[in-house]
Amino acid sequence: MSHFAFCVLGSGSSGNCSLLKINESKWIMIDAGFSMRQTKERMRTHNICMDEVGDVLLTHLDRDHFNPAWCRTLLNRGIFVHLHERHVDRGIRAGLDPKIMRPFTTSIDFEHLHVETVHMAHDVLGTVGFIFNYAQCQTRFGFATDLGRVPQSLLDTFTSLDMLAFESNYDPTMQRASGRPDFLQDRIMGGGGHLSNEESLAAVKHIAENSNLQHIVLLHLSRQCNASAIIRDLYQDHLAHLYDCVTITDQDRCSRLLRLEKQPTSLF
Ligand SMILES: [Zn+2]
Known about the structure:
The chain has one domain: Ribonuclease Z/Hydroxyacylglutathione hydrolase-like (Metallo-beta-lactamase, Chain A). 25% of the residues lie in helices and 26% in strands. The protein has helices at residues 36-44, 70-77, 88-94, 152-157, 172-176, 182-189, 197-209, 228-238; strands spanning 4-10, 17-22, 27-30, 53-57, 80-84, 101-104, 107-109, 114-120, 127-134, 139-144, 163-167, 215-219, 246-248, 258-260. The strands form two sheets. The protein has a seven-stranded mixed beta sheet with strand order 6-5-4-3-2-1-14, with helices on one face. Zinc ion is lined by residues 13, 16, 62, 64-65, 146, 220.
């Protein structure tokens, strides 16, 4: 059986961090936006310790996705940090040592895992989406957050997925009523910031039609401009057959551990 495990330690504008593991390999950390103390505390929820983390993948280097306090620990532990080549200068400025930086452009390869990457609009340098391919069991997991908009390249590559983790940032009515300054609302809603619940749902629906999703994990909910009840209602109304697959993540709490179970595919 395939043992593909994933959890979100927390997701939102105050910090993002997720963990992914294939079989007995080490955990891969996706983003490191919390303090060390908070990360370790949340990892204890699932009895995971830092010694079990082998690599870090960064979607981008905004402060809620990479906390520079990690630089020394990552260097001391020899943990490689995989980041898009466009983010390397920013990584150096944040204090990452080039010795542990592993820049990528289109893909990353681990021992049993091939990771395709999709570059997407978000502020100036953009952000990166990942598709984790575990060929032995034909398992595919797509991960994308902080998208300004959903590019066609994402819809073209996020196919045949078993699991999807995807941003669902704000409810437009709550956003407009938030009292936030216009420039901030424009940045969030103007195609270079975040996805509304409706934009996210439309993409998830499209992806689901070309996949066999066991889990849909919704990321980066705005604390001020979103509510899980609104998202639940949307799925109930528009994607009812997938309602039970949905996990809505929290800024302050670790998600449950999600597993994918698939039989290994015979080569003959
Ligand atoms: Zn973010």
